[in-house]
Structures are given as C-alpha cells and as structure tokens.
Amino acid sequence: MDADRASSSRRRRRTEVITVSSACALLGVLGARSGAAVTSAAWLSPNDGTWTDAINWSSNPFAPNNGNPAGTTYNATIAASGGVSYIVSLPSSVTVDALLVDSVTATVNQSAGTLSLATTGALINSGRYQLAGGNITGAGAFNINPAAVFDWTAGAMAGTGITTNNSGALTRLPGSGGTRTLARLFNNDGVINLTGGFLSLNNGTLANGPTGVMNFAPLTGINIGGGTNNLWTNAGALNYNLGGTATSFTSITPVVPVNSGTINVTVGTLDLGMIGIVHNAGAIVTGAGIVSMGVGTQQLNADVTFSPAGGIFMNGGNVAGPGNFTIGSTLNWNAGSFLPGGSVINPSGNVVNAAGQFQLKQLNRRFENNGTLNIASNATINMNGGTFANGPTGVVNLSAGSGFSSTGSTNPLTNAGTINVPVSAGSLAISVQLAGGGGTLNNDGTVVIFAGGSNVGRVEGAGDLIAFTQRSSSADHVRQHSLSVQASATLSINATGTDAGTSNVASLLLAGSTGAWTGTLDLIDNDLMYDHPGGVNPLGTTIDQVRTARAGGAWTGRGITSTAARNDPNHTTGLGVLTGGEWIGFHGAAPFSGQPVDTSSVLVKYTWNGDANLDGRITFDDYVRIDSGFNTHLTGWSNGDFNYDGVVGFDDYVLIDIAFNQQNGTLGRAIDWISGDDRSGSGRAATGVQIVSEHFDQLGAAYGQAFLATVPEPSALLIVPAIACLFRRRSRRHSTFTKFTD
Length: 742
What we know:
Blueprint (H helix, E strand, L loop, with lengths): L2 H4 L2 H6 L1 H13 L8 E6 L6 E2 L21 E7 L7 E5 L3 E17 L3 E24 L3 E17 L4 E4 L4 E4 L6 E3 L2 E4 L2 E4 L3 E5 L2 E4 L4 E4 L4 E6 L4 E4 L2 E12 L8 E3 L2 E10 L4 E4 L4 E3 L3 E3 L4 E4 L3 E3 L5 E10 L3 E3 L3 E11 L1 E4 L4 E4 L6 E3 L2 E4 L2 E4 L4 E4 L3 E4 L4 E3 L5 E4 L6 E3 L2 E4 L5 E4 L3 E2 L4 E4 L2 E4 L8 E3 L3 E4 L4 E4 L1 E9 L4 E4 L9 E8 L1 E2 L2 E2 L2 E3 L5 E3 L8 H12 L9 E2 L1 H4 L6 E7 H8 L14 E7 L11 H13 L17 H15 L2 H9 L11 H13 L1 H10 L3 H15 L14
C-alpha cells in the first residue's frame, strides 16, 4: 500500500487475529438467509476488471447483484491474491447481502451508482475501498479493519446501517473536488485523515470514539449538507494541523459538535465556529497553536481547560453552562460574554488581556483571578450580575479609560491581590462595588471611589484617591500623594489598631470649611501621618477637623473622626494631634506607627485621652505635660488641651484621669469615691484614685461634676448636685496639681 499505510503497520500486526476472526464471522453468515437462494460470488483473479462483468466472478454468467437472476441474493468476496495490485471498478448500482474485501493488493473503486448492503453489510478486512462517487446505502454495516484503508473522495454514505472505522484502521478524506455526504452513523475508533474539503452531514452522525483520532488539514472541516438531525461527537482526539492559516471549525451552516475528548491545535489558528461547541466531562482544548472562540456559544456542561500554547482569542460569542472555564494559556478577550453558570478561572502565572476599545466584554459569572489581568485603554469589563475575585496572587493592571462597569444590581469586586493604576491611566472611577479582601490598590494616577460601600483595601503609590460625594467607602490604609473626601462622603480606615492601618498622605482635602466640614475621614482605631511637603502648615486645619468631629466628646461631627472613640462607653479614647517636631522632641528618630517622621509632619493618633506624647499610654510624663500647660497657660494636645478648646482646664484633667484609671483598671473605684458611694480607705492608695482625689480637692465641684458626666452611670448622675456641697466642706491641700507614683 501507499505511505499512509506504513505508519499503521504496527497496529495491523497487533490486530491480525481480530482481522481474521472478523473475516470468518462475515463468511459464516453467507447463505444464512432463510427462504432465498444465496450465492457466493468470488473475484477470480488478481487482475483489474469491472464488477458488472460476470466473467470476473465465480458466479458467471451472473455478476453479483441481488435479483439477478430473480430470487437470487449474493455474498461477494474479493480476496484474490497476487503480487500485483489490481482494481475492481464499480461504475453502476448493485445490491448484495454481504461484501468481503480481504486482499492487500485489491482496491474496490466505486465511481458512480449505489452499493446497497441489504443485510450483513461490508467488511473491508484488508486492501482498499475507494468511494469516489455514488452512494453506499442499505441496512448493512460497513466496517473497516486495521489492515484496510477506506478512501472517501466523493459520494454519500446513507441508510440505516452503521459505518465503523475500527481501532487501528485508516479512513482518508483527500482532495476537494467532490462532495462527501454522511447520512448514517459513522463510528470512528481508528484514524480519519481529512486532508481536503469538507464532510457534510445530512441527517448523519459522526461519533469519534475514545480511541478515535481525526486529523484535519487547513481549510477542512465538518459541515451540514442538509437535514435537521445532525450530530458530531468527540470522545477521542481532534487534531488540527493548520499551517499558517485560520480554519473555521464549521462552515456557513455549521453543526454543533459535542466534545468530551481532546481538541488539539498543533499548528495554526482554529476558529470554533458560529454556533460553538458543547463541552461535556473530559473535554480539553489544547495544542501548540491558537484557538479563536468564534461567535457562537461554548456550552460548558462540565469543567473545561482551554490551554493552546499560542493563545485563546475571544472576539465575540459566549461561554455558558454550569462548568468552569479554566484558562490555561493567554486569553485575549476583545469582545464576548461569560454567561451565568460556573466560574472563569485564571490561575497563577497566566495572563488575560482585555482589549477592544468600547467593545462589549460582559461578565455574568464569577471570575477568579490568580494570574494577571491587563485591561487596555478604553476597555471595560461590564459586570452584569457577575463577580470578579482578584485572589492573593492576582494582579489587575488598568490603563487610561479602562476598568469595570456595572449594569446589574449587585456586582461585588473583591481584591485580595493587587490592582495597579499607572500615571498614564489618568483618572479612573471605581464604579463597581469593590471589597478589599486584604488586597492592594497601587495607584499612581487618580482613582475616584464612585461605588458606595466599596472597600479599596491597601491603597499605595504616588497617586490621588478621591472619595466621591455622598458615598461611604473604606480602605485598609491610604498612602498616597493626596486624599480627597468630597461633600457628605465618608472614607473609613478599617479597624486594625496596628501599624498596618496607618495612613500617610502629603495632602488631605476634606470638603467644607473651618468648623463646618462636610467630608469625613474616619480613622476608627488607626493613625494618620499628614506628611505635607511644605507651604501652608496644615496643623491648624487638622486640629479644627478633629475638634469639629469630636463634637464635645460625642464624636458625632464631620471632619477627622473616630468611630472607636464614639463607641467607647467610658469616653477614654480620642484622637491626639502632634507636629513632627514635637514627636521628634519626645521620641527622637523613632517612627510614628511605622512611618518615618520629619519636622514638616502632622501626626494624628487614636489613643488614650491624656496621652500627651502619643506613646500609646498615660504615664508620669503626660501628667507633667498637662501640669506644665495648666500652670503656663499653654495649649495644644502636647500641653494637655485634650478637648481642643484652646485652654488647659479641669475638663482636660477629667479626660486624663478617667483614661488613666481605665488604663489601670481602677476607674470603678475612682467613680465610687468621687460620687461619694464609697469614701472608705479601700483602694484609695491606688495611684489613679489618689490622683482623682487630689484633683477633686484642687479643682472643685466642676471637676467632680464633669468627671461623673463623662462616665454616665445612673448612680453617679443622681448625686452630681451634691458634689458642690461636698466640695465646700473640703480644703485645698496641694499647691501643685499632680502627685504621681508608679
């Protein structure tokens, strides 16, 4: 045989016993039809001849053709052997019960007419059958065994019989000069080489079995020639060696393949067609070439991995179904939709490029990104009921005019990885609700938080962050060139109480004006460094923003606030403000909450009321500061003005004393003493209680009233009016305010 047969010689040796058994099985049915004269007709010699020439047959004077003579049926055998190849030509219609071709030198060449297989069918056990025109039909099977070749250049296979290309067998579909039509079931468990033209289905089924291999050359494929019941299934391998060409999976009127095997693009680009593919369990799309998703729908009934090394191009069409779509190589997403169903999974190390300016890229399902997503300029991923989860190793790189948009009701965008906004991106709006999830937003451009309820995570970089008007959003920290909070907007720094929650900005812009701020930065339990580069010192503005938000200790105003301070039932905490110079005077070169300090810095810390030096606790040093501030009429947090009213007075002593006793666990005893509930000596020696007693002596009833009003317990409120009388019976015993013992 020719070179195609050489590659399958080993398979033929392995299946030799099966071949003989199959041939004997066919011969065993010869003459089995009851009530009819069955004639065995054998080709007499290994010479060329025409089927209809009776002289070539052992049934001479009749060539095998059922009903010739009347009432006769035939089992035809072409098995003459010899050293020379020969051709049996079939140019006209014949009907037989059975046909056996079993000579390696024989070729049956059907160029026209119809071969009708009435009952048993045909077995091409060795040699070659060439269908170059006409039809093969009937109820009988057509089987190709491993030592045989079926060449199908033109013509049709129809009828209720089944064609089977057995494991190890070879079927070749060469040339493009004729039309090939399949109108029956064709089971392929061997190899089909489609090297030219198309195979058209006309109420036909092509089933590529688990051991089946179909090899496609450029500009070849499977299409529909007619009919409404056409099916192409793949449980084996479809190999596409397309050279430098782009070949469509289907033609103008396509058939929808059902794939549970492997689609392997070895070379070139494969377009998956206008209707798409149904992918079932076991489906894989792979190879060294390129896959274009087509404009149809890829129906995923099970999880499928697309991993062609040359990349995946999605220029339209849809991915649908309950299965996960795992991206195993670079996906170039220019247009198209991921419809509701399973997830899109971009694993670590993989890349998705979302390009195509102003072209619809719609996400209606979950997208799990642990690789890299690059969104090109003016490209937008529209969230329409879908979710995007940027995982711990996920990176999203944005460009000018790019990002995520929303037409659905709830479209969470979560970030546990990194989102990068370069300088070149300009101004971008987060218009889809973002949940930080412990991720980082690296912003060197301008990001506007437009979607209320967003958590932008850790915001880093040299860019500008804007909290849009009338929106509430949050961050893990903000370390940017500038932070702007517009009118009626609130940006909260998620509660951590650690250095990780410290924000650092060169410019802080809150909407509003002195005493009437309308934008809110809620530090909760975190700290802020205002590292302004120079110019007008923001210290006065910062203090006013804290004072306005403090609202007399209720912490209900706008400005720079602390929800943690507002929710503190004993009002022992607040926000302290120092300059960088003051910090350096207290602590030298030590960092402030993990951030380096210089003299231009303004520092805001969530801490105890009375923590004058912002070291996070109340000690002797803090009482020294408030005493000095009181005696020398100084102001500012570092000098004891803890309520920012511009005076160091008894209200400030109340704040530090309550916080100190809370810190030391003696607040309850101090309340009992100052309220008169318990004036016994029990616990009186505790430093905090002793200080409260002394300050009560020195500052009078107003101190006691303010103390109990700040820590509102029902029993304390009932006796506040009696404190003035109690104070009149006590004498001043100290010329200095605070005696402090550790």
